[in-house]
Amino acid sequence: MNYLVNRKDIIWGYLSQFLNISSSLLLLPFILKCLNEEEIGLWYVFVAMAGIIQLLEFGLLPTISRFISYVYSGALNLEYGKIPKCNIGDFNKELLNDVVVTCRCIYFKIALFALVGILILGNAYIYTLSTSINKYYILCCWSVYGLSICIQLYFGYYNAILKGRGDQTLLNKIIVVAKLTLLLISIPLLIAGCGLVSLAVGAVISVIIDRILIRKYVYSQESGLIRNLEKSNKTVSLKKVIWQSARDMGVVQLGNYLSVRAGVLIVSSFVNLDAAASYGLTVQVTMVIVIIASMFFGLNIPRITSEQAHENMLVVKNLMKKSLLIANCIYIFAALILVAIGDDILAFLTKNTTLLPKELLILYLVTALFEMNYSICTSYLTTRNEVIFIKSMLYTGVAIVLFSFISTYIAEMGALGVILSQLLMQSLYNNWHWPLKVYQELKND
Description:
By secondary structure, the protein is an all-alpha fold. It is built from 17 helices and no strands.
């Protein structure tokens, strides 16, 4: 497999991730014009709840992607917590197919759990929200939107396969098509006055198109994969290895969710939907900046994983230095633009909702900068097939939720309390420890 990243790969990567993360952002002019502030707040609640449902994937995508990279790099077997020994040359097609069959079984169960969570727990939570909008209309919108989540989850391992074998440009092209479909469907429906259902219907159709396209290329002739292969004797042992590794990443993702996304639910529950709209918008815009800034690193994860397996540490070191430099330069530049003219751009689009006040915006951007840097460093550590930061991520996430609850519900600090909780709790350990550890390891190598 070819893991080298060229300029064309980077361009497609930036375009796809921009559309992937910012499709809602590109919809914003129409959302802000066509929806009222309560509906905007509900949309961000939908997005936050989708994040909870997607936690059922529990770290599988990065784990499977890493294992696929090992297999295509010549791995003879896969073990928990160890970098496998690799042969230079052809890859083990039997092992590859066993991994894919195992993943298919796991993802089917995840999709079923997700469907139950969406129809029962999700609808129950939405029914408790204080809003003047018809509850049954909101529940229908959420159920349709939830269907798109289930479809995406069931076929989620396709993304990991393409990414793991180095076909990221192909994956990015499919993402571009899917997100453009979302925009082309949702925008006319919003203009026609269909409300929240516009976004839900657009999400379902775009996900269906995405899965159809990606399945076609996953089973290409040169992939070495066999369609509709049945379970083998290795499926049970591989399932154990995958679950053990995914469990570690899943706990980390849970901690990340509690650290970042849970704030939207806390603000909507203990402040109001209007505040949730401003906070959610700020989080969304910042996430777009983070994703674009760390794109170069994301594109090179399969290569870093492969180079780790072949012990080419000089290449790994150079890729990490370049990744961190590019990420920080892009983030700081974009953050300065957002602070300088973000309010003016938003005021031109609508008067219905705003970003957080400038002081809070700057504070949140600083918080997100620290989180981006330690996230890149912890992602690097996983390329060695070990996850040593589980406890720190989970404990920090729980602490952030606890202090956010205290600061919003008891101290009545609003969004400021949520942001300060993130910054202070992360700064106790994660913000400095993991970047320092990566620096020390690469320096020694």
